[in-house]
Protein 1
Amino acid sequence: MISRQQLIQQIKQKKSFLCVGLDTDIEKIPAFLRDHPNPIFEFNKRIIDATRDLCIAYKPNAAFYEKHGVKGLQSLVDTYKYLPKDCLSIIDAKRGDLGNTSEMYAKAFFDEASSGMSFDAITLAPYMGRDSVDAYLAYPGKWAIILALTSSASSKDFQYLHTDRGYLYEAVIQKANTWAGADRIMYVVGATKSLEFVNIRKLAPDHFLLVPGIGAQGGSLEDVCRYGMNKDCGLIVNSSRAIIYASNGEDFAEAARAEALKVQQQMQVELEKVGII
Amino acid sequence: MISRQQLIQQIKQKKSFLCVGLDTDIEKIPAFLRDHPNPIFEFNKRIIDATRDLCIAYKPNAAFYEKHGVKGLQSLVDTYKYLPKDCLSIIDAKRGDLGNTSEMYAKAFFDEASSGMSFDAITLAPYMGRDSVDAYLAYPGKWAIILALTSSASSKDFQYLHTDRGYLYEAVIQKANTWAGADRIMYVVGATKSLEFVNIRKLAPDHFLLVPGIGAQGGSLEDVCRYGMNKDCGLIVNSSRAIIYASNGEDFAEAARAEALKVQQQMQVELEKVGII
């Protein structure tokens, strides 16, 4: 369990607000690992060993494990158990359902006795409203990370609809702000939306924002920091493919470390720029 | 694989548009089954055997299986394999993500070679737009069932927001109508919203609507039919708890059958009323 204060402490200590996204795709990992009995876990293990001092969070993307059915889920459980306890563990699951179903998903991802896994945080889709979030908040100290503004082109389909409470993504933030505070809720805001950060910071000045879209998706770290950083940093910036697939040779873990180090050093500059460290 | 025409045929043949929801909760199944090596699958198997001639679809709710981690997912795979091929198999997963992640979820639920499961249809959350749906439509003949108006009180949080294209749920239907036709897309509309069916039928006259909320959640079948039925029936009405937990004794399967039969007979009346059969 990582509290808001512990998260801020980790950021200052590691001079980093990097989240390594474990979107581990069997077709993209080095060929020599594929004969391993548990190749996805083996890959993750080596990535984690190579990056754990450079990042403050890990985020396995559930889809990449579910793709392989039972065997894939076992790799996710193994990965969960291997995650360093000083890093925030985020399951990127984007669940969202009625109250009684949300309770079951909460057990799947937050209750180790039930499922073998107990992540610190989960990403959630807001469409079904408060019922999609409450069951997770019932676990003391755990985090609900709610989709606000995502990074793909099709985020415009609905998130930018004009509503009587502003854009839909603004209405989501305003409403979810009433469900719990910045110590329990974060928002997902894509890095490709850097100008919107100004707007989002008006609505959620204190919240941590989970920011995917750096690297492969083309967002700029400098812009995200300029417009999105708050006095506690308030950003967890995710990079998946650019780090974990930096090389597909035998040196993949070293290459991932080199890439993570590059991002960490940029982050250090940004943290120093505003006097957080 | 069940096409629109086959679905309509099944409805006429079975005089039913019932979907049995397999929200199978280990804490609610009869005590004598709990010592079974695969209790959730054993329960489902007996429910399926007892109801397959009375319903046209089965809908396992992924959360209830994921709750138990690897073991639960194995029960879901076993259940998938046991589902009768003449019934539409719907995985109630409410996924919704970026394109490259949606492709992975599509493999999880639509590609048996990858995951052990290949359902005919999946429920999807629309918040992230078209990317959340396209990857599933890429599987010929399979169905995307998009959340429009859900049945819980908190559906009001966002689905009834006034947007410049009507209520949010109306904007979702209008936009998703442009992604594929009534032969590939259905919408989820809660049974507790019967007056809104009139409105929804203006936007989606030909689509099948998946309607949860009958039974335990208090929706009226008669109202749903009055306002929501179209010339092909156009409704798949789900009941979960009221059927599968009709008894928690040794007679649970017979009790489930009796309950399903009651609903099927009401459905027959409704189908006869409008001359579909």
Protein 2
Amino acid sequence: MDKIKRNERLGALTKLLINTPNRIHTLNEFCALFGAAKSTVSEDIDLVSQSFARFDLGVIETVAGAAGGVRYRAIPSREKTRRVLDELAVRLSEPGRMLPGGFLYTSDITSESATAQAMGEILAARYYDRKPHFVLTMETKGIPIALMTARMLDVPLVIARRDSRAYEGSAVKINYVSGGERIETMALARRAVASGQRALIIDDFMKGGGTLQGMVDLMEEFSAEVVGVGVMIATARPERKRVDGANALLILEGFEPDTGRAIIHPAEEYL
Amino acid sequence: MDKIKRNERLGALTKLLINTPNRIHTLNEFCALFGAAKSTVSEDIDLVSQSFARFDLGVIETVAGAAGGVRYRAIPSREKTRRVLDELAVRLSEPGRMLPGGFLYTSDITSESATAQAMGEILAARYYDRKPHFVLTMETKGIPIALMTARMLDVPLVIARRDSRAYEGSAVKINYVSGGERIETMALARRAVASGQRALIIDDFMKGGGTLQGMVDLMEEFSAEVVGVGVMIATARPERKRVDGANALLILEGFEPDTGRAIIHPAEEYL
């Protein structure tokens, strides 16, 4: 194999790190791939790391110790987070998004991969230190955001269903209170979660918090520990939610009576 | 601003291209960001492009013309595609995946972000030239793969629902035949698709093809054109599917009677 110059290594190195967010790569892995010395690969990594820091593209960090190496985390700066949430609030307050019953039409935005990824980056950044083993969501609208959060954390996504389908095998079912009144069912394949695992719960929308509390109850059935609850949008009212300690990125205050536009803004901690 | 050296540009340039697959960036965009001449940025792009080609990391290509520039497409080589599908077939034939009724348990694999991304890369590569405006899937299990396919194509994802929910506004509903016998309902928000758009249909599993044909019928209601139908796994039987021209990545032949292991392999065109 020809000797590979630094200029030719940097693109590949960047791609390999970004492709697997939060996964630790050993220097040896890159030494073998590029036929380069450790000190050389180390300098390459410093260059990519500086480049990312300069342009607010996330963090390349070296992890010390026996299981050490280098990893990429898509941690957005405070300014970038604010910019992303502001832009989203503007889009969500476009006219025509108010639906009968005071609901907000968000399906076009929640299933955009770029938006889901941006949300996933912000949510993951908040929960790295809780070390979840998996992300849990309830079908359907939260799946893209939950998947991207799981991707950024390098953990599996687990999807609770409205009913237990034949192709999921034996399942645990619970009842929960949705929309303040209706009793609904949520099911999860028995093999999806192991006892003692740490769950991060992610969903797109929280009004009363009943669905999220249902997911908390479901995790209790599996003897799993809930280490965080994150949602894209929470309504300002009711102030008291069925679930405790959920973190929202955006707060929906209500709708302008004349225009029907949503009044929505980033949550206080992001202001 | 200090002058930014090539070594410091390459990491950022790579990240910005990969972050937005299939999106065309103008050279001017990078010239402004890096304070560099067009010829310099052009050389940078060539370096990243060579690095990607050498390590089978996808394609960085220059697009000529008035709307021209440079874009990243995650096109895996034939060898890489084969390797990904072989590994997946091995995992799917692990013991214990056969469920009552001859179903295959795949939820753990279909909702892994890395697997969904690998599937999305292979599926997108097949449909770039059909220029879909959006990817359509039916909730729930196909969503991660469909989302990643949409991400690679840089188009929105549209999710058909089992029922029309209050928070989606007015919807189009159709009936379709699932599992060869049952009549089921599929719904999609009226505002989700515009007349004349091109749809790429993606799902995780095809047995009879009824659900996929339902999505084709649904697109007819919206006067949208279906430019492709792609699935992760198709069963070998029934040979005749309700939907025409679907492309599968993997073929499920059946299950070993003694062990219950799935007999599954890459589709012929990938062998």
Protein 3
Amino acid sequence: MVFVLKLGVSRQSIEQFVGKIEAQGFKTFLSTGTEHTVVCLIGNTSTIDLNLVVETNEIVEYGKRVTEPYKAVGRTVHPEDTVINVGGARIGSGMFQVISGPCSVESEEQIVMVAKAVKNSGATMLRGGAFKPRTSPYAFVGLHEEGLKLLLIAKKETGLPIVTEIMNQTQLPLFEDVDVIQVGARNMQNFDLLREVGRCHKPILLKRGFANTIEELLMSAEYIMAEGNSQIILCERGIRTFETATRNTLDISAIPLLKHKSHLPVIVDPSHAAGIRALITPLARAAVAVGADGLMIETHNDPANALCDGAQSLNLEQFDELMKDLKGRITYENKQMGIDQ
Amino acid sequence: MVFVLKLGVSRQSIEQFVGKIEAQGFKTFLSTGTEHTVVCLIGNTSTIDLNLVVETNEIVEYGKRVTEPYKAVGRTVHPEDTVINVGGARIGSGMFQVISGPCSVESEEQIVMVAKAVKNSGATMLRGGAFKPRTSPYAFVGLHEEGLKLLLIAKKETGLPIVTEIMNQTQLPLFEDVDVIQVGARNMQNFDLLREVGRCHKPILLKRGFANTIEELLMSAEYIMAEGNSQIILCERGIRTFETATRNTLDISAIPLLKHKSHLPVIVDPSHAAGIRALITPLARAAVAVGADGLMIETHNDPANALCDGAQSLNLEQFDELMKDLKGRITYENKQMGIDQ
Amino acid sequence: MVFVLKLGVSRQSIEQFVGKIEAQGFKTFLSTGTEHTVVCLIGNTSTIDLNLVVETNEIVEYGKRVTEPYKAVGRTVHPEDTVINVGGARIGSGMFQVISGPCSVESEEQIVMVAKAVKNSGATMLRGGAFKPRTSPYAFVGLHEEGLKLLLIAKKETGLPIVTEIMNQTQLPLFEDVDVIQVGARNMQNFDLLREVGRCHKPILLKRGFANTIEELLMSAEYIMAEGNSQIILCERGIRTFETATRNTLDISAIPLLKHKSHLPVIVDPSHAAGIRALITPLARAAVAVGADGLMIETHNDPANALCDGAQSLNLEQFDELMKDLKGRITYENKQMGIDQ
Amino acid sequence: MVFVLKLGVSRQSIEQFVGKIEAQGFKTFLSTGTEHTVVCLIGNTSTIDLNLVVETNEIVEYGKRVTEPYKAVGRTVHPEDTVINVGGARIGSGMFQVISGPCSVESEEQIVMVAKAVKNSGATMLRGGAFKPRTSPYAFVGLHEEGLKLLLIAKKETGLPIVTEIMNQTQLPLFEDVDVIQVGARNMQNFDLLREVGRCHKPILLKRGFANTIEELLMSAEYIMAEGNSQIILCERGIRTFETATRNTLDISAIPLLKHKSHLPVIVDPSHAAGIRALITPLARAAVAVGADGLMIETHNDPANALCDGAQSLNLEQFDELMKDLKGRITYENKQMGIDQ
């Protein structure tokens, strides 16, 4: 950790500052330039709140961490890829899985029909919203508990593990039979919820907030791991930028960057990123090629009459075609990596 | 409401689409261009989910609402300014109030001392965090219940109504004696929380999310009003942009825009927007001039040793100077508007 | 084209507005709603400046174009893919080309050495900067005319066509022997320069500005085509967002979107998008998979001593490895599309 | 200047790196942490290209400048405010000036009429576009040389100095009688143009690019000063963000920040920032209060029939009212600062 001091700081106040730091058990080195003085800290600085030091010491111009602010989710302390087993489907380290299903669970017929179809096409997990976050208080918000029950029926019929979104921690008891709990983009910094799902013994699908940095995503994963749950799947789903031609801008670079910085599996949700059906296939192909560990794709038996997000949903035939297209690509990538999935 | 249909759509599918719309009780007008056909709806279209129509009807290129998606918070249905009474301090319609206090409540001595000082300088509400949202799981998160108790002691000592942030709806019972419940930027789209505070009979301070549009802020306020609570104070606190010289970019245009579109009072938080102490005074002056109804300013008895956000906090003397500077300005604005506050 | 009129507009002013529009030769349809009136125009509205109509007619709330503002670059008037022949290398419609070379031309030895190496690895065009845009007036700005001469020597030695950036239109005479003139991101809306290169009879490589929308990129291409030059290669090179982990955010969705809207070839520059060497290979793979027509990659014989952008340059061995990796992928894509390149 | 080295760098390569730095005449201090080594440079590091060092030395993780990359425009070397005299109107250091006029010069009658009116209302400089940058090649681009002539006629009639935009350096001879040359937002990083106007002996109005940082704006000003011209007026005109309710987001914090970092005068253009007439007055008030040195306001005799940007132009009466409103405010600010303008 390095602190650059302000111009014209007195010798006395530097000594005070250094004294304060050393009192916390760190060794320091001073480097006195022609203009500024730099204080370098030696020791395990992960316990120091960098901003706090800058904010509470008037003589400090700025500080810079040499090591990352996250520990448990980082590759430094955990170099091997994490592989997560979701009801037999293993994801991470080259094991590629496709999660598919409708935006919302609408009825037993619908969810069972979609589940059977996507399984048949090659999906290995079923998604479906029971609790839906909506910008307007007047929009359809999902079937709630009833939706969760229908998902479990679909699981029973197909054997597919289910992935569904939680909206707040009071709902946790309802999620006991859910296989993967999804924390949505708007909840990525709902820190109390992160702590609670950190105490679960289930895989968590953590979506990047549409205005959150890669570092913030990793810090939110750190919240979950800090409570003891290391089964986290990260999901890039597009960020908010000035471009309005797509719903969000898929940050494709985030995938190799996240995999470089962290050992956790990373998947891509092209449906929410693009918001346009015609872009799903090219973006899914890009996700496979860039090194993602999986995809999350919205599929609906009848997009023209879906209760939400129909414009970005594939129908069952389109999803089947996409999966046929992807299979060859996944095989190609596995061959390149010497993996026999 | 206007729907523009895709190129080359068949007469039959247009008729089907129009039939579907009219079956919902709307009158339509068709306008057949050389390239596209446009369908105009007449009637109270506030019950229609625009995106749903676009998404579920393949022949629709796009739709556009002629009226806003919010109702209760809009000026159209409620042209007069809303004035909110917080323990005697009236805010809105030219009544300007300053909320001040530390980022976090740290001790009884601290909060009482700051409360007395800011009251003395002219602040009419006391802020202080008991539950703090922090990016890192290892950072100081506030004194929780103990912090709330200390705030109430400071209220007793000074008579200042208190404003403090809630993190999730399970905390609501603890907020019974709080005067204004703050919903923070990261919770602006925590829709379940919005609904719950909508059922309170207290003023809500709703902060704009750092990546949320003005329309989304109004829709979140609509969530609260839809549950029956119309005592909402909106707060602009900076948005996330490419510029890194300031912590966030204060969207000063949002204030007159919000006041144009909505009847709710709008305040500015220059401390979080800038993140730099030297900018607080100029931004506070700009907020007064642009027509805000109030300010929220972080003040600390000892910023150099604050447990969070010290860099953006004023000390007690700086806050006193700021208030002296602002008083003349508020008087000036009131005189311009013919208000005798 | 559709205009939505403001609330409570008088019948007389509507008639005046409609009269003005019809005087320009358009047929109109009026649709009178319960709140707003909508005026729909029929005819070839490409000659109308939409914003002008909105801005100059107080009664208009807003207008919306039903068709795009560009014509010549759009697929509507030119459905077939444009294929551009650069000295024998054909780009577009599945013909994939790789442009490579150093950020700056530094010496004859350097550029010839790099040219030979990248050709050997499979690149079909040579890039190299002679005029360099730099944020600081004190930074290295390239060898200028001397740099162009060295590029021509490298071309002579290898047969590779050359691609190099122009900074302003006074330099055009110097670019006579250049094969492809690059218009850089900062010049994407230098409209006078666009017009001048539009009068050239050479391919233009038009880079997207780092804060320009996809529509603005197409409008800039339209400037070039409007002067008669239809040999335009579009290039996505990353946009400026709040994320700082990468230099820019590669907008991977822009590639299929541009190819959907326009007939022009689209390439990707992962070097400038990422600014990090380790991301070049995954992003290049994503570009191939997403349907790009080519890549532009910075390669340097000695990145550790490059005069600019060393951090994002591959060395000759890394580029060779990348090309080996890409060859199989390009073959795979061609097979999928039934192309025999 | 501080360089943080990568983990696990060998002693030998550190010595090589230090040797290279010291060979350039700098003294260094090494600070060896438990994980990273930090190299601190002492001496005048303004001659060092920071990025180049990072990019060309594999062992360097990152570097950080302790001093700013600009010199001539910074307060450090030039602490006093620069005051620029434009035909008698002095701007800077509390001298507040208002520049007004139409977006485009359209005819002699128009420009003379507007000039007389805005002068009468209190404007001290006349703006008007002769060369207009337009996104579409089919839009009105101004009267060119004829427009410049009409501006000079208006100057003769009113005595108002004129401010008008240059599009490229070949136009410079035409600008001989222009009082202030404006470099527009899209040309802020047209470095060749910056150099050329740096050789003029006239004030330059340099607008911030809509996606450029405050530091980049100062670096562009540095380009002009590096050629010998120190008469530069900086102009904030809004930046591009995700918010679409306004044309751009006025970065109000940029004004005090720029004035803190630089000695140059800073003005605000609320017309382009907002793009909405109703916001001009509140934003102009905010600009006065925040400490700007002037305003640039679009005014048109007949906005409803303006050839461009009518929606954001005030008419003559509105401008007169605005000026009456601002006069009291400017007097108020001057009194606060003890200035007798």
Protein 4
Amino acid sequence: MSAEDELIARYFKPLAKHPGAFGLADDAAAIAPPQGHDLVLKTDGLIAGVHFFPDDPAEGVARKALRVNLSDLAAKGARPLGFLLSIALPKGFREDWLADFAHGLGRDAEGYQCPLLGGDTDSTPGPTTIYVSAFGTLPAGTMVKRSGAKIGDHVFVSGTIGDAALGLRIRKGELDDPSGHLVSRYRLPQPRMALAEAVRAHASAAMDISDGLAGDLAKLCRASDTSADIEVARVPLSDAAADALSGDCDLIEPILTGGEDYEILCTVASDRVAAFEADSARASVSVSDIGRIVAGNTPPRFLSTEGKALSFLHPSYSHF
Amino acid sequence: MSAEDELIARYFKPLAKHPGAFGLADDAAAIAPPQGHDLVLKTDGLIAGVHFFPDDPAEGVARKALRVNLSDLAAKGARPLGFLLSIALPKGFREDWLADFAHGLGRDAEGYQCPLLGGDTDSTPGPTTIYVSAFGTLPAGTMVKRSGAKIGDHVFVSGTIGDAALGLRIRKGELDDPSGHLVSRYRLPQPRMALAEAVRAHASAAMDISDGLAGDLAKLCRASDTSADIEVARVPLSDAAADALSGDCDLIEPILTGGEDYEILCTVASDRVAAFEADSARASVSVSDIGRIVAGNTPPRFLSTEGKALSFLHPSYSHF
């Protein structure tokens, strides 16, 4: 066996529990969604120095790499089936880093019932680069799109907004975090798998929030050919984020635009709101009604309690 | 629109012709294999400075990135359905590089009827890094594995062996290439999609040759709990490779071990050989019977016309 095959057999084979992964001993995997179901596909990556700090613990990096993809599956209404992992390791990587990475990945693959199906392991002269392609299933034709929002629909978000953006500032030493909550939200997203069914049953449009609430809502509105009015006071904040904001009200911008929330943003018609809220409660995921879809082709307005629209310096994260 | 979304809309949206790609305007794609079919999954990547030269033309890099994955689908007996593209671009990349890349990718997506389904575009402090996840379909349960070879089966390869390995030496300035054939074989693999049906109908085991005939046959034999005896004189060479070898007989090692052939290696039971050869001829793909599967757990032997086993310094490519 080559060193490459040995690493794969030692660290990744135990994660390949789907029979169609053939124990990672073949060149490809074979899967099928249940009859009458579609397969939902998503790929998203993490690069050291861009999406995570090179000294972040490997176990958390692995879990985040999988979770950012699972978050998309949940927002589309899908249930996880499995994933492919592509990883490029820098020269001189430490095998204990890879062992920790595989341990974290295996923990979440098990926890989310999303086994490893296959992958590719390379050496790179650059930074550690990880791409996950995740696959989910849902009844055929029921994927919840960005483009279905209608004027008058209520705008919902799950969980709390802005924690990860503040956590990143803390990680950079720009803010304090007495509770540790904000950094933990930055390090390890909580994909809202439990909400997938309620989203599929009731939402007219949905996406996960990865590039910030303001920017992602603007994308949803553009795809739906609408705009939105959001009441900033109704955007749900964790206690830690509310404390930070009370000390520096300029933090409202990173909270609303900073990204990496990995919460679900969705729109729900008025007559489905009660059912959506009830199903969300049954799924034990908090959801908050933060505003309405309105006519227009301008970016959503974020309104203060006085009805004044906030303006942002950097409305959304972009790589270029 | 962010600069990232604009690049995607300008260069990649035209490639997303599958209805389940939603014009790359959503967060995920939705597909389904035909009823009674499996989906075959494969991911493989190219990194600048590792798998290609940073000054290689972008169009060819894109086509190779897709083709190395299609080659695996063909060897497993599958027909292409679509692919995901993850690409990390270095700071200061030139937009005309991306335009050329997308042009090449679109050409092959069209030619192989394998549309783009979605992807992820990032910025990296490292080299250009490209991962493709390709999806194919075949009747449920018929994926051709590595592990099915039986003692007495004939060992077949498609096309010619060693061209790309010699092409890489030429690209490095270590060899001459009067015809240009060898470098073109290194730059642009020809995945044997036309052979997929014949492989699925007749092969007991199959894989594509990416890490060299010797190493990949060793993997197939190990997975099948067998060994093999190969007659080196029967390994098919192009005229250009034969010319190079006649000038330097030490080149037999890179020819047999160098990799990137992207030909199909498969094993066929004696009573299926005639049918396999006939179906291959109908598909206009040349195949060569180069030896037999034998009992044992040692690496395959490559035998000279005098019956002497060759020994190799580096039997197979490994990243680590």
